[in-house]
Design brief:
- With 271 residues, this protein is an alpha+beta fold.
- It is 33% helix and 18% strand.
- The strands form three sheets. It has a five-stranded mixed sheet with strand order 4-3-7-5-6. Strands 1-2 form a two-stranded antiparallel sheet.
- Helix 4 packs parallel to helix 9 and helix 9 packs across helix 12.
- It starts with a helix and ends in a 5-residue tail after the last helix.
- The N terminus is likely disordered.
- It binds iron/sulfur cluster and FE2/S2 (inorganic) cluster.
- FE2/S2 (inorganic) cluster (FES) binds next to loops.
Length: 271
C-alpha cells in the first residue's frame, strides 16, 4: 500500500457542537498524478490543426477543465477553450476527451484510467480557435423548432397577468426528462448523420421539438411537426443511438426522435 493510500484512511478529530460530539468520517488524501494532455489546437490564421503536449499534475478530484486552466494560467496563455459554470450546468465546456464527447468540467482524468489525455474540439462544429467551436448553426437549428411555449391566444399569454396554465405531475412527466437539456452539443457532435448531412437538424433540436410539443400547456405542436417531418428532420435519423450514449444529462434524444416519428405516423398521443 502506498503512503498516499495509507493516509487516506487516517481518521480526523471529532467535532463537538454544544453537548453533541460528531465523529468526522476519515478524509481521503488526494492521489496526485502527472498527466500528459495532448491537445488538438486549431490555428484560425493558418486554417489548420496541430497537436501540442502539456504536462500537468492533478489529483483524483480534479477535472480535465482544471487541467486546462492550470495550463492556461501557468504554462500557455494562448490556449483557447470555452467554459463557464464549472459544474455541468451551462453546457459550455464540451470537447472530445479520449475519443468521446464529454464535459471537461465533469470528466476526471483519474477516472479515465490513463495518464494520457487527448483533447480535441467537438466534431460537427466549425472551429474558432483551439478547442473553442462555433455553435451558431447548432443554435439556429434549435431556434428553428420554436423552443418556447406557443399559445393560440397570445394576447392572453402575454398581456393578462393572471393567466397561468396548470399542470399535473403526470403531464409534467410527459416531457420532463427532455427538459434537462443544457445545450452542450455533445449529442450533435457524436451524431454520424449530422456528419453526413450538415442540414440535418440533429438530435438536440429534435429532442426539444418533442419536449415542447409534449407539454400540455403548449398549442404549437403542429408548427413544429411541420419542421421535423422532412428529409432534414426526423427521417434523417438512422437510430445509431450515439446521441443518447454521450448525453451528460440522460436526455435520450434518440427516444425523443422515435416518439416524434410515432406521432407523425400514428397521430399525437400520450406516451
Ligand atoms: S440532449 Fe444531452 S447531449 Fe444533447 S445538447 Fe442536450 S444535454 Fe447536451
Ligand atoms: S463549464 Fe459549464 S458545463 Fe462545464
Amino acid at each position: 500500500m502506498s503512503s498516499q493510500q495509507a493516509s487516506a484512511n487516517t481518521p480526523t478529530a471529532a467535532t463537538t457542537v454544544g453537548n453533541v460530539t460528531i465523529a468526522k468520517p476519515p478524509l481521503s488524501a488526494p492521489i496526485r498524478r502527472t498527466y500528459t494532455f495532448k491537445v488538438k489546437r486549431y490555428d484560425p490564421e493558418r486554417g489548420s490543426y496541430y497537436w501540442k503536449e502539456y504536462s500537468v499534475e492533478l489529483t483524483n478530484h480534479e477535472t480535465v477543465l482544471d487541467g486546462l486552466l492550470k495550463i492556461k494560467w501557468g504554462v500557455d496563455a494562448t490556449l483557447s477553450f470555452r467554459y463557464s459554470c464549472r459544474m455541468g450546468i451551462c453546457g459550455s465546456c464540451g470537447m472530445i476527451i479520449n475519443g468521446t464527447p464529454r464535459l471537461a468540467c465533469e470528466t476526471k482524468p483519474y477516472d479515465l484510467g490513463t495518464d494520457v489525455i487527448t483533447i480535441e474540439p467537438l466534431s460537427n462544429f466549425e472551429p474558432i480557435k483551439d478547442v473553442a467551436t462555433d455553435f451558431s448553426e447548432f443554435f439556429d437549428k434549435h431556434r428553428s423548432i420554436k423552443p418556447w411555449l406557443i399559445r393560440k391566444d397570445e394576447k392572453e399569454q402575454f398581456e393578462k397577468l393572471e393567466s397561468y396554465y396548470p399542470q399535473t405531475e403526470e403531464q409534467l412527466n410527459e416531457y420532463l426528462e427532455f427538459a434537462y437539456c443544457i445545450k452542450c452539443g455533445l449529442c450533435y457532435s457524436a451524431c454520424p448523420m449530422v456528419f453526413l448531412n450538415k442540414d440535418y437538424l440533429g438530435p438536440q433540436a429534435l429532442a426539444q421539438a418533442y419536449r415542447w410539443s409534449a407539454d400540455n400547456r403548449d398549442e404549437g405542436a403542429i408548427l413544429r411537426l411541420k419542421v421535423v417531418d422532412s428529409e432534414n428532420g426526423v427521417w434523417s435519423c438512422h437510430y445509431s443511438g450515439t446521441c443518447s450514449k454521450v448525453c451528460p444529462k440522460d436526455v435520450d434524444p434518440a427516444l425523443a426522435i422515435n416518439l416524434l416519428k410515432h406521432w407523425l405516423l400514428y397521430g399525437k398521443r400520450k406516451r
